[in-house]
Amino acid sequence: MKQYIVDAFASEPFAGNPAAVCVMDEWPEEEFMKKLAMENSLSETAFLVKEENGYRLRWFTPETEVDLCGHATLASGFTVLNYYEEGTDTVIFNTRSGQLSVTKKEDRYEMDFPVSELKEIPVTDEMEAAFGARPVKAVLGMDLICVFEDEETVRTMSPESSLLMKLPGRIQNPTARGKEYDCVSRSFAPKLGIYEDPVCGSAHCQIAAYWADVLGKKEIIAYQASKRSGVLYCCLKENQRISLSGRAVLVGITDLKVMP
Description:
By secondary structure, the protein is α+β, with helices and mostly antiparallel strands. The chain contains 6 helices and 19 strands.
């Protein structure tokens, strides 16, 4: 079985967010997928099996299967469109979050994702202790988003992971408005075995929606300020959908010697 390592939301190798992509003829035991994801030790390993109307797609962190992942979907679209469905511009993925698509548009790959509803919640002392700075606002959807006054706070913070575990939400995303981008963010998910996710696509279903509302615009250019960093191009659409696009780079193709 071949495994592709793809850097998503990156225009050069060793940037953006790396994902492992396994395209298979049939589903292995779930335990095998969990063990391979743990062995890869990347924020996500994607598993795909072709179906009549596209591909079934599942995502695993080193700890668990998740309902939605942006960068591994982009990496999966990149892999399918370049190595399995050459000459095709769009691939459909059937997932736990419904039907998602990836479309190749020049040098970017555009994903169609759902938007999570957000509600404002009180800022707490626990949030301030976890991030080392007090947010000016907190909103909760699928993830917890903490908004800070300036991007320097977001870029330089070193959150306390044990305290992050006590906060609500699946992934914590400090975010601030940037000088060169519409927003600058970081993403932390210790509950899923990922201290910091380098560039989180699913988080921007909420981050971009939040800033689109605040700034009164549909198109948001987002920068994730991890050590690897990455840029996401986001556009709010009708019917609670959003397009997220970015570039991707192949890093390597490996042959797995341990078969399911």
